[in-house]
């Protein structure tokens, strides 16, 4: 089939490369000439494991191409996917749909034969209706259908998620469009991927509901972690005990510094705004969003407390900047709030991240010293804080770290170490929700 991806960002590029790998003929369109030129050279603008190889191999096979020209590919397409950004709108947090509607207008002008227009971008309920209205108004004679097909890709595991999905949601009541979408996803039948056919509005809401629920699970276990610290319980065992219940499940029950990234923050805000607009406030989601923002800043205070109540004039080494491992995405990362809080408290920041430092430089406030590796980062530091659970931080030579640091204080915001093992190495150790953290010894404070 002939497929066009309008937008060559994270969703468009991953989806386009995977569709091409299925054997479809895919054209990725983007207005940024520099991005298209780079993609044609095989240079990938984002970090996603396996994506570079997938793009290059399918481009070499002639199944995947890149262009700034939308009209030509759309006129011959069976399906056109809108995969442009829908960032939070400044002021009210609602999804900014200007890019979606601009793409819809351009697609309308280029339509040739019967075409299925698919909203792959995460969009609020009713967006598909507006896309259809725009296209119908501009091209009343055109044969087309508008379908909602939300993506459920995890950054760092997007290719696996696309090829072995939990479900494929297709929102349309048009039988002809349903058949086109079935043909698009036919290669996944061998993987027994369940296809859920719904109305368009149901599909649009499903994406937001799923993300809001996962954000709620994260926020809930983070609050339980705070309680565990006060009562002397272990949040990891609590999460295990909860997750073994099949009605709950263990995923997204890992306590940490709060959620971030490209989806949960903006999607919870968009769902909140949609619910308010329809007079049915989503109070639980409102609380989740508020608690998560408060938690990120609170993690900065946790670091200060572990350092004896003050970091003024001290150096803090931050290990991990991206919101999660295996991505270079800095959007709404907890590290942003944590570093800002520490700088406000008078700390000097040294930082290292395997993939996210270039992106971090564009968004981190104040002066940050970026290091080439973890050991350089902790050298002469008064405290080290693990913010992102990259694998390379899981097996640090703690003896070496202890020798390099000015004072042995380790704050593990991802619980990747066992407290007793770290303490045996001579560290003051603070973690998340595994009983009351070590008080800072007078020796450690004096050494600082």
Kindly describe this structure.
Helix 9 crosses helix 11 and helix 9 runs parallel beside helix 12. Helix content is 44%, strand content 13%. It has 2 domains: 197 residues, NAD(P)-binding Rossmann-like Domain (Rossmann fold); 241 residues, 3-Layer(aba) Sandwich (Rossmann fold), CATH 3.40.50. Strand 5, helix 6 and strand 6 form a beta-alpha-beta unit. The strands form 3 sheets. It has a 6-stranded parallel sheet, with helices on both faces. A 6-stranded parallel sheet has the order 11-10-9-12-13-14. Strands 7-8 form a two-stranded parallel ribbon. The protein has 448 residues and is of the alpha/beta class.
Give the proportion of residues in helices: 40-55%
Spans of 5+ residues with little confidence (pLDDT < 50)?
A: 439-448
| Fraction of residues in β-strands | 5-15%
Using the coordinates above, name the CATH class of the largest domain. Answer: Alpha Beta
What's the tally of helices? 18
Q: Which architecture of the largest domain would the CATH scheme give at its second level?
A: 3-Layer(aba) Sandwich
Average pLDDT, to the nearest integer? 94
Assembly type of the chains comes to single chain
Write the CATH homologous superfamily of the largest domain: NAD(P)-binding Rossmann-like Domain
How far is the first residue's CA from the last residue's CA? 64 Å
Major beta sheet, strand line-up: 3-2-1-4-5-6
Overall number of structural domains: 2
Structural class: alpha/beta
Rg, Cα atoms, Å: 24 Å
- The general outline is elongated
- Enter the CATH topology name of the largest domain: Rossmann fold
Number of strands: 14
- Sheet bearing the most strands, described? 6 strands, parallel
């Amino acid at each position: 089939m002939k497929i066009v991806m309008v937008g060559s960002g994270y969703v468009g590029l991953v989806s386009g490369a995977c569709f091409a790998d299925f054997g479809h003929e895919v054209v990725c369109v983007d207005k940024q000439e520099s991005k298209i030129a780079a993609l044609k050279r095989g240079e990938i603008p984002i970090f996603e494991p396996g994506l570079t190889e997938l793009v290059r191999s399918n481009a070499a096979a002639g199944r995947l191409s890149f262009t700034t020209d939308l009209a030509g590919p759309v006129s011959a397409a069976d399906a056109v996917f809108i995969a442009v950004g829908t960032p939070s709108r400044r002021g009210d947090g609602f999804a900014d749909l200007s890019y979606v509607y601009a793409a819809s207008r351009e697609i309308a002008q280029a339509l040739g034969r019967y075409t299925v227009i698919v909203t792959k971008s995460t969009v609020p309920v009713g967006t598909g209706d507006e896309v259809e209205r725009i296209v119908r108004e501009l091209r009343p004679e055109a044969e087309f259908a508008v379908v909602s097909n939300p993506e459920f890709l995890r950054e760092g595991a997007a290719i696996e998620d696309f090829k072995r999905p939990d479900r494929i949601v297709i929102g349309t009541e048009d039988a002809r469009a349903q058949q086109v979408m079935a043909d698009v996803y036919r290669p996944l039948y061998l993987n027994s991927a369940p296809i859920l056919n719904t109305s368009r509005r149901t599909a649009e809401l499903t994406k937001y509901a799923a993300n809001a629920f996962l954000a709620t699970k994260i926020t809930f276990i983070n609050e339980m972690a705070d309680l565990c610290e006060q009562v002397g319980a272990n949040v990891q065992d609590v999460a295990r005990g909860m997750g073994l219940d099949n009605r709950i499940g263990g995923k997204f029950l890992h306590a940490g510094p709060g959620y971030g990234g490209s989806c949960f923050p903006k999607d919870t805000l968009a769902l909140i705004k949609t619910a308010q607009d329809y007079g049915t406030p989503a109070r639980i989601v409102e609380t989740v969003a508020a608690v998560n923002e408060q938690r990120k800043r609170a993690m900065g205070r946790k670091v200060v407390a572990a350092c004896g109540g003050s970091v003024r004039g001290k150096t803090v080494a931050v290990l991990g900047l991206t919101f999660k491992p295996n991505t270079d995405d800095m959007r709404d990362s907890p590290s942003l709030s944590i570093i800002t809080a520490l700088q406000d408290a008078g700390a000097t920041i040294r930082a290292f991240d395997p993939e996210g430092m270039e992106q971090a430089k564009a968004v981190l406030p104040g002066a940050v010293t970026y290091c080439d590796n973890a050991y350089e980062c902790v050298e002469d530091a008064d405290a080290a804080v693990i913010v992102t659970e990259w694998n390379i931080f899981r097996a640090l030579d703690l003896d070496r770290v202890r020798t390099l640091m000015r004072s042995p204080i380790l704050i593990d915001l991802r619980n990747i170490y066992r407290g007793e093992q770290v303490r045996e190495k001579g560290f003051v150790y603070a973690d998340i929700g595994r009983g009351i953290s070590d008080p800072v010894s007078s020796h450690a404070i004096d050494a600082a």
